[in-house]
Amino acid sequence: MNRHIVVSLILALTLSSCTSPTPTQPATPPPLQVTGTTQPTVSPPTETATPAQKTNLALGKSIKTSDTRPDNPANLAVDGINRPDNFWSSGWLPPQWIEIDLGEAADVYEIRLVVYQYPSGESLHRVLGRGSTSDEFAELHIFNEYTEDGQLLSIEPGEPWRGLRFIRVETLESAPDAYVEWREIEIIGVPAGAVLPEPGADSADIIFYNGNVITMEADQPSAEAIAIRGETIL
After folding, report:
1. Per residue in 213-223, pLDDT tens?
2. Contact 140/110 with Cβ under 8 angstroms?
3. Which of 38, 42, 155, 186 could tie 112 with a disulfide, CB 3.0–4.6 Å?
4. What is the pTM of this model?
5. Is residue 154 a contact partner of residue 108, using CB atoms and an 8 Å limit?
6. Which DSSP symbol is given to 83?
7. Rounded CA gap, 93 and 113, in Å?
């Protein structure tokens, strides 16, 4: 055998035995499977109803009447203005009526009627209410007394009239030659089902005046008094 060939074979065998093996990549572990768990349910925050305040629900509301004098339209009875020159007039003697649509059902706590009447004398007024046009009117109150211009007739039931939308005032009798007229009509209440503030929620427990504990009478001075509720000075 040729000497050069033998040397080449030995060299090739030697190099092949010294070659480093190609490293293998480790297998990628499978993704972690989590079983038996659920996402927590987050409840939305509970909304607390804002207490409603009693207001004049008749202010600016729609009106119907048995009749109206053009110079003294019905809207003048619900415009919030109590003046001798600002009144609704039917333009006729009794019986006549005026009806207020509150726009939605309401809980009524008080009804106020400001009289426009010349001359003064005995009169008979009937106040009616209903929740919808499909209901019959129910009698809420009757005023049967001597009345005069500017007088306030007021009704406050022991419990509010609930779910009323339409309030009608019928005048059945009045002083001789006195047309049926009203300066102002106010319906005091809140939307039906509204929550009112807790009684006394914003009132003070104690009031001091000049270092002395006093009662909460309306005629007591307020500018120099200190009111305390719980541990808070109001």
Report:
1. 555 555 555 54
2. no
3. 186
4. 0.66
5. no
6. B
7. 18
